Amino acid sequence: MLTDEYRYKILKLVQEKPDISQRELAKALGVSLGKTNFCLKALVEVGLLKVSNFRNSKNKLAYMYVLTPKGIEHKATVTINFLKHKIKEYEQLAHEIAELRNEVTDDLQE
Amino acid sequence: MLTDEYRYKILKLVQEKPDISQRELAKALGVSLGKTNFCLKALVEVGLLKVSNFRNSKNKLAYMYVLTPKGIEHKATVTINFLKHKIKEYEQLAHEIAELRNEVTDDLQE
DNA sequence: CATCATGCGTTCAAATAGTGAACGCAGTTT
DNA sequence: AAACTGCGTTCACTATTTGAACGCATGATG
Q1: Fold that domain A4-109 belongs to in CATH
Q2: A75 and A65 in contact (C-beta within 8 Å)?
């Protein structure tokens, strides 16, 4: 399933290292190869990524994943949304942590 | 799947409201009734929760979910671990947000 | 040149996880 | 007593994820 999180993370990783392999990507994302392959194809499908074959001595047959103009634009948008989301998450965490601290002391008193 | 997150959240919700229904729990957790039922049973299975029937006028046949001594102790531990985890997450978020801010400005320049 | 070893993307059967409609039960209401 | 409501339980179905296995292309080895 291609969630916003993966959309963002993949676009970022690909932009940083266009010759990244699907296996590297999978490891970086913490998901399986199959899922990574699925997500990449989905991104190509909707035109955010473009693949171009290339060869090099270390990676026998590999692709370059290139962000399309649409992909770059989308990444900016997605990044901003992600940022907003993260900031909200951050604030929520502050509350949660305070709450947890209370619970910890509560629990110890029981 | 009963992850630490659900273990913690369920113990917390149950402690706060022992006569909570599985449907309420499901809604609070944001998962299905089936999954909630599964998680509750798992917690009873490992001895963290105890069920005791009770009736009341509003809830026809309902259970009380009671944290066992083991459950209370476990909750303390789990809460502390969760707290540690959240604090780490919090710190990581601070970095991520800073990074995202840079990306946003980077993206705008491209 | 021929063989092997390595690393790539791809596939897909199997495993795992998650859903929610439907059921029987027991009180409450009409 | 019949209808209604809310409870936990079940489970067939769907969705999601995994990773071993494959074919292919290159580099290395004899």
Answers
A1: Arc Repressor Mutant, subunit A (1.10.10)
A2: no
Does residue B90 have a pLDDT over 80?
Answer: no
Pairing of strands B49-54, A62-67: unpaired
d(CA A50, CA A65): 6
Q: Assess contact for A18 and A65: CB atoms under 8 A.
A: yes
For A19-71, the pLDDT digits (tens) are 999 999 999 999 999 999 999 999 999 999 999 877 766 666 778 999 999 99
Domain boundaries, chain A: 4-109
* pLDDT confidence of residue B42: 95
Q: Torsions phi, psi of A9, nearest 5?
A: -65, -40
For residue A99, what are its two tokens? 């709450």
**What is the spatial distance between Cα A50 and Cα A66, in angstroms, rounded to a whole number?**
5
Show residues of chain A in contact with B89, CB under 8 Å: 93
The C1' atom of C10 and the CA atom of A34 lie apart, in whole Å, by 9
DSSP 3-state of A105: helix
